[in-house]
Amino acid sequence: MAPALALDSQYNFQTPVTKVADDILGLHMSMFWICVAIFVAVFGVMFYSIWAHRKSKGAVAATFHESTAVEIAWTIIPVIILVVMAWPATKLVLAQKDTSAPDITIKATGYQWKWSYDYVQGEGQGISFYSTLSTPRAQIDRGEWKGDNYLLEVDNPVYVPVGKKVRVLLTAQDVIHAWWVPAFGVKQDAIPGVVRDTWFRAEKEGVYRGNCVELCGKDHGFMPIVVHVVSPEAYAAWVAGKMKPAAAPAVAAAS
């Protein structure tokens, strides 16, 4: 898992709750320290050379011809560094794209400026609802106390069971939007006329929040995403509660 210091810092990623998000943070920190090491090595040699070979010490400019060994070294070493960096990055990208064998599939459609969700496969299939911002307008218009989740509250959050693979199909009705939940390591564009997909498997129960992160119009900042990750029992109860209103018209029509 990622270092606790990185997780608790307000300057780093949110605490990951999926393996992909944890791998993203781990890769990020690995690349960061590799870059730090290269920076220290290159600038360390440069500043030492400036100090040790300064004119006041009698140093004179070197005269030498090219060195084949040096040129081979400064070609091979960067290639090795790039391969070392690219190998885990490629594995992570492939893992991010592996949407096969989901337990639940949810279609998310972006609108100006809300989301609609349709459970199209797995437990909960047939559930559909819109999810819109629920932050009171008074907080937005009159600058009242904004609370901890200002502009990150919705009337109908998404519910998923903990430990299950959830595939999310993304599209849009009007302009390009993007579905982003940082704790899941998920960010995928929703494009009109195109269906793209992503996935996550949350390993910890909780409430996780995100946003539309593709500039989509004047209310772009009012398209939050809220996902409740709950126990299988709580999820089954939520599904049953959502199914009752849908079943009522059918029962009334049959009678």
TrEMBL record:
* Pfam families from the UniProt entry: COX2, COX2_TM
State how the cofactor is bound.
Answer: Binds a copper A center.
What does the UniProt keyword field contain? Copper, Electron transport, Membrane, Metal-binding, Respiratory chain, Translocase, Transmembrane, Transmembrane helix, Transport
Q: Which residues form the Cytochrome oxidase subunit II copper A binding domain?
A: 101-241
In terms of InterPro entries, this protein maps to: CcO_II (IPR045187), CcO_II-like_C (IPR002429), Copper_CuA (IPR001505), Cupredoxin (IPR008972), Cyt_c_oxidase_su2 (IPR014222), Cyt_c_oxidase_su2_TM_dom (IPR011759), Cyt_c_oxidase_su2_TM_sf (IPR036257)
Q: Catalytic activity, per the record?
A: 4 Fe(II)-[cytochrome c] + O2 + 8 H(+)(in) = 4 Fe(III)-[cytochrome c] + 2 H2O + 4 H(+)(out)
What EC identifiers does the entry list?
A: 7.1.1.9
Record's bilayer topology term: Multi-pass membrane protein
Cytochrome oxidase subunit II transmembrane region profile domain spans which residues? 5-100
Q: Which cofactor does it need?
A: Cu cation
Q: Which EC class, in a word?
A: translocase
Keyword set includes Translocase: yes
TM annotation in the entry: 31-51, 72-90
Record localization: Cell membrane; Membrane
Function summary: Subunits I and II form the functional core of the enzyme complex. Electrons originating in cytochrome c are transferred via heme a and Cu(A) to the binuclear center formed by heme a3 and Cu(B).
Question: What protein family does this chain belong to?
Answer: Belongs to the cytochrome c oxidase subunit 2 family.
| Name of the protein in its database record | Cytochrome c oxidase subunit 2
Record the organism: Viridibacterium curvum
